[in-house]
Amino acid sequence: MPTTPTPTNTDTSQIDEFGTLTSTFTVVGFTLALLNILFAVQHAWNRRTVYNYFLVLCLTTYASSFVPLMLSTMPTLQLPDGADSPESAAYEQWQEVDNLLKIWKALYGFAVLQYIFLVQVRFRVVKSVFKYHVLWDWAFAVITLVFYVVCSLTYGIFTTFPHTTVSLGQALATAAWTLYALVVDHFLSFTFIRELYYMRKRVGGRRAGWRRVVTALVAVCVVSWICLLLLVMANLAFPNDNLMRTFLFRLGYSFTPLEFSGALVFIYNAKRLMANPNASRKDPDRFEPPVQTTGFLSTFATSPTTPADSKGDLLSRKPPPTENFVADA
Prior knowledge:
Elements: H1 12-46, H2 50-64, H3 66-78, H4 91-123, H5 135-154, H6 163-198, H7 207-236, H8 242-254, H9 257-274, H10 325-328
Helix pairs in contact: 1-2, 1-3, 1-8, 1-9, 2-4, 3-4, 4-5, 4-6, 5-6, 6-7, 7-8, 7-9
Region (Disordered): 279-329
Transmembrane segments: 20-41, 53-71, 103-123, 135-158, 170-193, 213-235, 247-268
Keywords: Membrane, Transmembrane, Transmembrane helix
């Protein structure tokens, strides 16, 4: 993952060329993120559930992370060597760039945190065929929050460190948080595909829905690792070439909204895929078997109008099958 750059002195025309390319791809990524928001808002308007609102918030946070990148493009490329030194004449300019990148880290890290929780709720559709104890949900949430706080402290969201002493630590922390999100997302995604394959007879006759879901999940994984490869290559292959390093970082990051696009395709096709194939048109919301929604974040997986069970709280109730995550999404 990128660290705060300290570019080399380069011809002004070359800086302008790289600046134009870098800005263009950053704007492309921002546009893709906005399209994801519009699609999610439209669906949330039609199905007003907590899960859909939370999904819109996640996408909005991620789209916002492109703003500091757009503002820091040319200042980053124009910084001279050694600008991060307090003795440098460009030190104040470097501080402005560093503050913008710190805002990016905060927005990016928080958006990924929201997405991980959404991934967990998304995975709950597997509970109809893949049973696991509710304590695993709580353990997962605690581990994720602890890991997020540790990484945030390391890469300087909640604290301020001299750049020269922690630049490597910031890069490793950002990379570790990204890898954690990818591993969690892909492990749960492929587990879902496997379990869905084993129950393919239940979803017979829904080949189009099956293809959309599987294609979306595979696309999320492929795009994620391609973008990550570009980010790693930017730092390993061009450690002393700030222009190319910055360009490859923005190129990889600009296509990360496609990962969210794939997630949206999955979420909004899950209901039709998991619905009972033998249900009549008069009973389209009949599900077999119902998805269990007890445990962590179950309130996000149910309709906000569902009454709580008189014998339990919001985290222990069992809502009707038509009000579970699959139906709401």
